[in-house]
């Protein structure tokens, strides 16, 4: 499914590129975003830890002479090593697990499992690095002063949880192209529900800051007396951190959730505008219930596309107007009297044509012949009711009423005669036009019926087409058709002669276009 737009939102964000983007370019894009995310998340976690350690929870203080080498040597070294290790090991694990996607191969069940675990391992790796810092420096600070380790462990774990949450939310978005390939291959992958993401966002954005404020209050209550000013500053710092982290986490959560919803919203707008083609289908990339929503949308569009296809086929078989009338209400057997005009067109010498040409050539010529008739009839709001071998029956005034059905039929007959002579010269045909009362409706059995008209005008038009074979370039119309037509169209026709049509006892006055009268 290709996309031509410059800023693509196939995956819910233009940062992730287009669905038709090459796998190598996509891998580089994802890896750069993933590395930047890991680094940024760790930087945020480090800044939070420093802020909490120095101002947020000032007591017991880390700013002591005997801790200088730990604070300014050991900690920076560990941070740099943890960042490098996190990025390198995370990259190696991720690339190994997503090798099938990089190689553009179809994933197997094992590949899907590895992909799901790649995300979990990457998240666990970040947690392990922060847990290692809590354990290592907790012991280190505890050896120097046993009162320091609870504060350090608390701050490091709180900061680490923020880092893990940020990385986890980002991975939900960054792995969308990979999830899309898995879904396309027919597998289902669940990498967390919307509820779990919301709870995760609440814990990081609200729960942990509230826990920090509670711990601060507890320290103030059981520890040495803390001044009101110091306590106010500490709470202010914690509230500021909580606000900033909460805003960031909620932004990531909303970014994660609203992407698929916006895709569905955009698709629904196209459907409302009448578009149901393949371009409306969404890329299913979300691994939660939102992915099911995208799948449901695609299923709905596929159903609408099939309905549109059936409607089109139905309209081609029975006529657009008949199809529209049938779809508006349940069709029933029987009919009603209507005043209509009828055109009957019959090919001259079809038997000879079949002996002179191959069946394929005959069909090709007849299709061009019918194409001219269908276009001319529809141009004048008529209905091609049926093809009877090499003959055509067209109706004007049913099922859609026309103000001047006789005039429309006469105009269509003139157009058919002119176009057949110019566009299908190898075929000649007799064209008869009649007008009068008929019964129009559904004829047949309840299991199978068709819309048609029955009455004398139908028979008369067929008989007129037989007589018209004497002058195949001219349409022949009955007198009552010309009399019933509007003044402008009637003026184009003149009486040619009177004749007794086959099966009748009285003569019928025949009219042809005025230019044909000598």
TrEMBL record:
Transmembrane segments: 32-57, 69-92, 122-143, 149-171, 198-222, 228-253
Residues of the Guanylate cyclase domain: 341-465
The keyword Lyase is annotated on this UniProt entry: no
Domain HAMP positions: 255-309
Pfam annotation, one family: HAMP
GO molecular function: adenylate cyclase activity; ATP binding
Listed PROSITE patterns: GUANYLATE_CYCLASE_2, HAMP
GO-annotated cellular components: cytoplasm; membrane
SUPFAM superfamilies per UniProt: Nucleotide cyclase
GO terms for biological process, alphabetical: cyclic nucleotide biosynthetic process; intracellular signal transduction
Keywords noted in UniProt: ATP-binding, Membrane, Nucleotide-binding, Transmembrane, Transmembrane helix
Coiled-coil boundaries: none
Protein name: Adenylate cyclase
Species for this entry: Gordonia phthalatica
């Amino acid at each position: 499914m290709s996309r031509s737009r410059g800023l693509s939102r196939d995956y819910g964000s233009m940062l992730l590129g287009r669905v038709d983007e090459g796998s190598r370019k996509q891998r580089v894009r994802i890896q750069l975003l993933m590395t930047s995310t890991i680094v940024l998340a760790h930087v945020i976690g480090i800044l939070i830890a420093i802020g909490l350690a120095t101002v947020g929870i000032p007591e017991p203080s880390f700013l002591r002479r005997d801790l200088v080498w730990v604070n300014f040597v050991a900690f920076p070294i560990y941070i740099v090593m943890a960042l490098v290790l996190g990025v390198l090991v995370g990259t190696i694990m991720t690339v190994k697990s997503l090798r099938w996607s990089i190689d553009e191969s179809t994933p197997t069940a094992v590949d899907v499992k590895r992909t799901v675990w790649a995300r979990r391992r990457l998240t666990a790796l970040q947690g392990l690095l922060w847990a290692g810092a809590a354990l290592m420096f907790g012991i280190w600070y505890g050896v120097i002063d046993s009162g320091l380790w609870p504060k350090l462990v608390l701050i490091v774990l709180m900061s680490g949880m923020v880092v893990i949450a940020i990385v986890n939310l980002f991975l939900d978005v960054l792995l969308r192209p990979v999830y899309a390939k898995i879904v396309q291959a027919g597998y289902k992958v669940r990498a967390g529900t919307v509820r779990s993401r919301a709870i995760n966002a609440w814990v990081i954005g609200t729960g942990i800051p509230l826990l920090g404020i509670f711990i601060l209050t507890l320290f103030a209550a059981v520890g040495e007396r803390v001044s009101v000013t110091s306590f106010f500053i500490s709470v202010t710092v914690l509230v500021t951190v909580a606000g900033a982290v909460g805003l960031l986490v909620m932004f990531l959560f909303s970014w994660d959730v609203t992407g698929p919803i916006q895709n569905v919203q955009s698709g629904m707008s196209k459907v409302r505008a009448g578009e149901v083609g393949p371009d409306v289908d969404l890329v299913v990339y979300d691994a939660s219930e939102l992915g099911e929503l995208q799948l449901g949308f695609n299923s709905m569009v596929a159903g609408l596309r099939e309905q549109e296809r059936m409607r089109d086929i139905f309209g081609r078989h029975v006529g657009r107007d008949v199809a529209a009338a049938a779809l508006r209400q349940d069709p029933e057997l029987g009919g009603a009297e209507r005043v209509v005009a009828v055109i009957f067109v019959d090919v001259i010498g079809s038997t000879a044509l079949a002996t002179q040409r191959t069946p394929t050539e005959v069909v090709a010529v007849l299709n061009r012949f019918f194409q001219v008739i269908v276009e001319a009839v529809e141009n004048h709001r008529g209905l091609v009711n049926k093809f009877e071998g090499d003959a055509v029956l067209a109706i004007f005034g049913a099922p859609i009423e026309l103000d001047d059905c006789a005039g429309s039929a006469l105009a269509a007959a003139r157009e058919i005669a002119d176009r057949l002579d110019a566009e299908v010269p190898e075929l000649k045909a007799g064209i008869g036009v009649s007008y009068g009362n008929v019964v129009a409706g559904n004829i047949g059995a309840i299991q199978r019926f068709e819309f048609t008209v029955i009455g004398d005008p139908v028979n008369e038009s067929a008989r007129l087409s037989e007589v018209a074979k004497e002058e195949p370039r001219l349409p022949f119309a009955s007198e009552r058709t010309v009399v019933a037509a509007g003044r402008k169209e009637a003026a184009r026709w003149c009486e040619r002669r009177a004749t007794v049509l086959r099966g009748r006892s009285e003569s019928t006055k025949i009219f042809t276009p005025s230019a044909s009268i000598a």
